[in-house]
Write a structure and sequence with these properties.
Strand order of the largest sheet: 5-4-1-8-9-12-13-14-15
CATH architecture: 3-Layer(aba) Sandwich
Helix content: 25-40%
Shape: globular
Radius of gyration: 18 Å
Length: 305
């Protein structure tokens, strides 16, 4: 890796080979938070890189990144992270997760020489990305976001369960943006009310909170709440919802205020949920949805070039 490798957004986390079980059937998908985040940001015109680990047999994932214009810093491992996601109902907040194998841990040496305006820690379970990487980006003054899923999820046998962790306060204190879903928020804050949960999160140090729930996302910044709905015409791609949301939010937050970045995140996520796999629509499709559903409170002047 060389110092001239400069990006708008870098997404850090392991690729996951996903088996998705829902009322509509069983699907096999190339997943991972960094996967969904990176494609969303790239489709909006940003220069994006991913840092990941996966098995040699899944090299096609790397080839696809490169073909799509996304740089990939990869470590090949004996096995990829293989995850099963079971959705017993049509509520995307309710799911059961299990992991049959993992690709191990990403370390700070894996991000040496990467310069970026913003970064997202998008890991799938605790131990995949540690505090060393968070501190490194914090020291560089990078706009730093992280999904709490990669810290609250712990692998016990093959099941992913939620557990608090000793370094939670320190971890969250380094973040500019914390992303959580409603289930994780209730577990970590004790609050079922998403507004109260977001306030409790903010008291732990993050400057901004992005909290997803089945109907949309809640943004908290500078003490002000912004509630933005999701408007998918169908719900065929619920897996990767939150990853797409935070990827878009961080991408747009580089140049926009929290409310406007939240609108883009809500619109992109709405379109992504219509189809299995990473977001693959155009920026114009997003703008069309913004004009239709969010235009009453947003000026488009100068947004996204």
């Amino acid at each position: 890796m060389k110092s001239e490798n400069t990006y708008d957004l870098v997404c850090i986390g392991n690729y996951t080979k996903d088996t998705i079980i829902s009322p509509s059937g069983v699907k096999y998908v190339d997943g991972g938070a960094m996967n969904y985040s990176a494609y969303a940001a790239s489709k909006l015109g940003l220069k994006v890189a991913v840092v990941t680990r996966l098995a040699e047999e899944d090299r096609r994932v790397v080839d696809k990144f490169l073909t799509s214009g996304i740089d990939c810093y990869v470590t090949y491992t004996p096995a990829s992270t293989c995850m099963k996601l079971e959705y017993p109902t049509n509520n995307p907040d309710i799911r059961n997760l299990s992991v049959a194998s993992t690709a191990g841990s990403i370390s700070s040496k894996d991000i040496e020489g990467i310069q970026s305006k913003a970064a997202i820690i998008g890991s799938s379970l605790r131990g995949e990305v540690g505090l060393d990487i968070i501190r490194t980006f914090n020291d560089k003054g990078v706009l730093l976001g992280a999904d709490v899923q990669g810290f609250v999820r712990v692998l016990r046998d093959q099941n992913l369960v939620y557990e608090v962790w000793d370094e939670m306060q320190e971890t969250l204190s380094y973040l500019d943006v914390l992303k959580s879903d409603a289930v994780e928020a209730e577990f970590l804050t004790g609050e079922a009310d998403i507004y109260k949960a977001a306030r409790k999160y903010s008291q732990m140090g993050p400057k901004e909170i992005v909290l997803t729930h089945k109907d949309g996302l809640l943004v908290l910044s500078d003490g002000e709440f912004h509630q933005l709905g999701f408007y998918p015409q169908k719900l065929n791609g619920r897996s990767g919802r939150g990853d797409t949301c935070i990827g878009t939010y961080m991408a747009m937050r580089i140049s926009l205020n929290p409310y406007e970045a939240g609108i883009w995140a809500a619109a992109v996520t709405s379109l992504k949920m219509e189809k299995l796999g990473p977001f693959d629509r155009s920026k114009e499709d997003v703008l069309t949805l913004i004009r239709e559903k969010y235009s009453s409170s947003l000026s488009h002047g100068g947004i996204c070039g």
